[in-house]
């Protein structure tokens, strides 16, 4: 069987990571693209805007639930095979969406493509980690995860522009073409990476260990804090800061670029000390949200605050992934899919909390809600920093106990 070291010798790390980045960029763009063309989809399929908005929820549920399930079912397969299969089925699913006139089928496709993105994410992290030395694991993670951040900053606006010009089906056709390109690049540039040893049961036991669940809980809190405020940042900028139109887009683009830079640069901090990075970043996020509330009426100050917020909020993402995979030990293959699921849960919780706050108060209420959640996340991040990966002896003992059958 090929060893990780053999994978590193055969692979071309830079090209492999660039290919995985491309795949994450394409899938991340497809996830959020619906938001930019929601009105076009609703009109074309003859459904209400809330019904069209369910397409976003369906995708998130598919990713959060279906991703780990598909990862567990394919845990023994070569990671390159899984990546290629996920991309091929993803392109096929989006082709069905382009060709259909039925809302129900489109909804089902969104659930499926969300699950396939979750599968791709887990396989991409496993493949990315395998082509670099252990001491560069955090930086490999950051390159892969940056694909999603860049898609939010650039892919979604560009896809929306295409949709407004060529229709929503045109924007989804672009996703299909890019998926095919990513598939070809994956087959050509990503080396073969053996699947994880042990069965799905062994993976589940290690991936859902209490130490891993604790960091996943922190992941939920981090994204809940972020999206409590971010979901309703446009009303905040319009009502509190007093800006609108193109200027609002410029502020959001600045935030998106900062988020992309943070996710890419955060890998170095993850390699140095991922646990400490999480404590510093959660504290920085809370401070940024407090500053946003205090200086929200001053546009010239809001812009740099948004930059700092984006850097801290997404700078910790590689460390979250790093800690989950490290603490899972032998269950790292399955655990790679769980941070994305936790993030989507946090997004749902945060959006709901921010919406509830906005409904009963002013436009600054979601920012304060995010601040409150971020403050709670600070001691949680410190506490999870005390957790350590399982030792070889602990893993052997746990596996031995799991294999002992109870006497009759």
UniProtKB/TrEMBL annotation:
Pfam families: MFS_1. Its main location: membrane. The chain crosses the membrane at residues 20-43, 55-75, 82-99, 105-128, 140-160, 172-191, 212-234, 246-265, 301-320. InterPro entries: MFS (IPR011701), MFS_dom (IPR020846), MFS_Efflux_Transporters (IPR050189), MFS_trans_sf (IPR036259). It is found in: Cell membrane. Keywords: Cell membrane, Membrane, Transmembrane, Transmembrane helix. GO terms for molecular function: transmembrane transporter activity. It comes from the Bacteria. CDD domains: MFS_NepI_like. Residues 16-392 form the Major facilitator superfamily (MFS) profile domain. One of its GO terms (cellular component) is plasma membrane. It is a multi-pass membrane protein. PANTHER family: CHLORAMPHENICOL EFFLUX PUMP RV0191 (PTHR43124:SF3), PURINE EFFLUX PUMP PBUE (PTHR43124). This is DHA1 family inner membrane transport protein. The lineage of its organism: Bacteria, Bacillati, Actinomycetota, Actinomycetes, Streptosporangiales.
């Amino acid at each position: 069987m090929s060893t990780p070291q053999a994978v590193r010798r055969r692979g071309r790390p830079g090209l492999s990571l660039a290919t995985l980045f491309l795949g994450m960029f394409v899938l991340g763009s497809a996830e959020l693209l619906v938001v930019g063309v929601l009105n076009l989809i609703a009109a074309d399929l003859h459904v209400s805007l809330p019904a069209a908005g369910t397409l976003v929820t369906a995708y998130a549920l598919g990713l959060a639930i279906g991703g780990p399930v598909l990862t567990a079912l394919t845990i023994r397969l070569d990671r390159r095979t899984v990546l290629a299969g996920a991309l091929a089925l993803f392109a096929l699913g989006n082709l069905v969406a382009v060709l259909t006139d039925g809302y129900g089928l489109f909804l089902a496709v969104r659930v499926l493509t969300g699950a396939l993105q979750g599968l791709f994410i887990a396989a991409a992290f496993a493949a990315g980690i395998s082509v670099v030395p252990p001491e560069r694991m955090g930086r490999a993670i950051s390159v892969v995860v940056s694909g999603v951040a860049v898609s939010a900053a650039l892919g979604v606006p560009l896809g929306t522009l295409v949709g407004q010009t060529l229709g929503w089906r045109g924007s989804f056709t672009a996703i299909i073409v890019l998926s095919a390109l990513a598939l070809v690049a994956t087959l050509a540039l990503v080396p073969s990476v053996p699947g994880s040893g042990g069965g799905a049961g062994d993976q589940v036991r290690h991936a859902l260990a209490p130490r891993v669940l604790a960091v996943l809980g922190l992941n939920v809190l981090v994204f809940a804090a972020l999206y409590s405020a971010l979901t309703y940042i446009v009303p905040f900028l319009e009502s509190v800061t007093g800006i609108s139109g193109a200027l609002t887009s410029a502020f959001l683009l600045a935030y998106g670029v900062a988020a992309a830079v943070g996710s890419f640069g955060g890998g170095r901090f993850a390699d140095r000390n991922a646990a400490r990075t999480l404590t510093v970043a959660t504290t920085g996020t809370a401070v940024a949200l407090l500053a946003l509330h205090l200086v929200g009426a001053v546009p010239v100050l809001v812009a740099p605050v948004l930059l700092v917020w984006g850097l801290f909020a997404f700078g910790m993402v590689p460390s979250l992934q790093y800690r989950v995979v490290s603490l899972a030990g032998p269950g790292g293959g399955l655990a790679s899919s769980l941070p994305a699921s936790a993030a989507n849960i946090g997004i749902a919780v945060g959006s709901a909390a921010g919406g509830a706050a906005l409904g009963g108060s002013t436009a600054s209420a979601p920012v304060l809600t995010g601040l409150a959640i971020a403050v709670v996340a600070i001691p949680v991040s410190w506490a999870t920093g005390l957790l350590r990966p399982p030792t070889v002896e602990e893993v052997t003992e746990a596996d031995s106990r799991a294999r002992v059958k109870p006497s009759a």
